[in-house]
C-alpha cells in the first residue's frame, strides 16, 4: 500500500518530485527532482504543521524558482 500511494502521488500533474520521510527525518523514498538530503528539514516542517491541525495529516507543498 505504501509504494502504491507514493507512486501515484509522484505522477500527479504539476508535481516535480516527492519525498517521504519518517517522523525522525529518515528518507524512506524520493522520486523526481528532489534531494533526499532535504528529508530532515521536510520532516521538521511537517511536524510543526501537524501542530496547527492536530487531527489532520499535513501535506507540505514547496515551490521554488530554481527547481
Which characteristics define this entry?
two-stranded antiparallel ribbon, 2 helices, 67 residues, alpha+beta
**Strand percentage:** 15-25%
Mean pLDDT: 79
Broad shape: globular
Topology order in helix (H) and strand (E) letters:
HEEH
Strand order across the biggest sheet? 1-2
The low-confidence runs, each spanning 5 or more residues with pLDDT under 50, are none
Q: Can you give the helix content as a percent range?
A: 25-40%
Number of strands: 2
Our Rg estimate from Cα atoms comes to 12 Å
Note the gap between the termini.
Answer: 29 Å
Count up the helices.
2
Structural class: alpha+beta
Characterize the largest beta sheet: strand count, sense, and whether it forms a barrel.
Answer: 2 strands, antiparallel
Keywords: Cytoplasm, Lysosome
GO molecular function: guanyl-nucleotide exchange factor activity
Main location: cytoplasm
Family: Belongs to the LAMTOR5 family.
Write the SSE topology.
Layout: H1 2-10, E1 17-21, E2 27-32, H2 39-50
Antiparallel strand pairs: 1-2
InterPro entries: LAMTOR5 (IPR024135)
Protein name: Late endosomal/lysosomal adaptor and MAPK and MTOR activator 5
GO biological process, one term: cellular response to amino acid stimulus
